[in-house]
Design goal:
Layout: H1 3-41, H2 43-46, H3 49-78, H4 87-118, H5 123-126, H6 131-148, H7 150-155, E1 156-160, E2 167-171, H8 174-209, H9 218-250, H10 252-255, H11 261-280
Antiparallel strand pairs: 1-2
Helix pairs in contact: 1-3, 1-11, 3-4, 3-6, 4-6, 4-8, 4-9, 8-9, 9-11
Amino acid sequence: MSTSTVLTLAHISQEITIAVGSTIFVAGVIGNFLNIIVFLSLRTFRENSCAFYLIVMSFVNIGNLMTGLLSRIIISGFAIDWTLISSFYCKFRWYCLQFCVLTSFTCTCLAIIDQYMATNARLRWRQWSNIKIARRLTIIVIITWLLHGILYIIYFNLIRSQATAEITCNSENFVFGQYHLYGYLVTLAGVLPLIITSIFGVLAYDNVQNLAHRTMPLVRRHLDKQLTTMVLTQLLLNFVFTLPYTILTSLTSILSHIPNPNILAIYNFTYVMAILLYYLSFSVSLFFLIE
């Protein structure tokens, strides 16, 4: 691969980031706002614990698109990286980003677990699906990830490489750097949510298939099927959109030590495409599934 081909690949990456990224951003913000409006306008959803998780998820998804995707468009599309200019923004972006990402994925997990509880044949399990518990769990989740973000304020900063003199927004602490890569990016924001949602998604789907054999109000049966369809759709899209990014992120430390510029150019291009795909999971509009 020649130098001109590497530069061409970088240029294509910039153009795709601007065009596709901007489309995802606009569609995602509008879609999440529509989710919030629809869920809050219908009483059946306002009083439902699963819908409550989806409302919170939609709010933080908008924040995620604002702090994550918008800055990614500016960084990869226009080569303007504010995180390399301001130490405050370096810390602030990662603080907000990890909070929005982890809160969104946690709400998705709680929503599918809630639907498993709500559709369970046992009354004792169904009692765990209620709006009071949902509100308390949401408060705990928000506080937990807000406190978790303090680590990024402490350890993330502008770092100048002694070998290349390049400035990066990262952590000089090796232990936290490994946690950021494998603990946060790969596990908490990748593998763990996929495992949890996959397990409870299958269980909830099995419960819904047996709803017809139970004596329950028709409206409640329809609502449970509808909400389960929503969270299973979100689960499927999350799996498709986040898995490539998670895999590539787990290979970062390996590929970063390869001196071949051609391989790095291909990896950087693929990584940017995976990031755009990743943000699609936060841009899903569920209101079209409401009948």
